[in-house]
Amino acid sequence: MNNITDSFLCLGYWPSAGSFGLNTDILATNPINLSVVLGVLVFFGKGVLSNLLDNRKQRILKTIRNSEELREGAIEQLEKARARLRKVETEADRFRANGYSEIEREKLNLINSIYTTLEQFENYKNETIRFEQQRAINQVQQRVFQQALEGALGTLNSSLNNELHLLTISANIGMFGAMKEIKD
Description:
The protein is mainly alpha-helical and 184 residues long. The chain has helices spanning 4-10, 26-98, 101-159, 162-183. GO terms for molecular function: proton-transporting ATP synthase activity, rotational mechanism.
């Protein structure tokens, strides 16, 4: 096994019966291993590879058909757009022929409508201001009245003693009695 060609022809060294050995000649074993692996891959992978290629081919064909359909649709849309463009150009020519009187009328109507709306907003604003002023005045009046009432009660409570209190009660009872006699 000294010669490389001998190892290719013999396909390795077989030890004598009853013992097991390991062929360490890399040049002799690698080509054999590679050929076996490649043979297995070709045998088992051929079907998988052909299926993958067939699927890829079908997807490509489907994409081409879809692209052609989209192209036809785009051509139709382009023709429709061109027809609409011609129609719009005709309308534009008609508007130019009729002049801009309709546009001016619409402009004046819009200006008048905006002026009326602004007047309404001004009126609403003035009403809101008057309402808020009246509410502020009412709040101030209530606060002044409350403070005056609190001040009067404070003055009465501080200057009222027991004797004056009894005198006031007696006077009120006397007035009540006089009112009762007038009614009878």
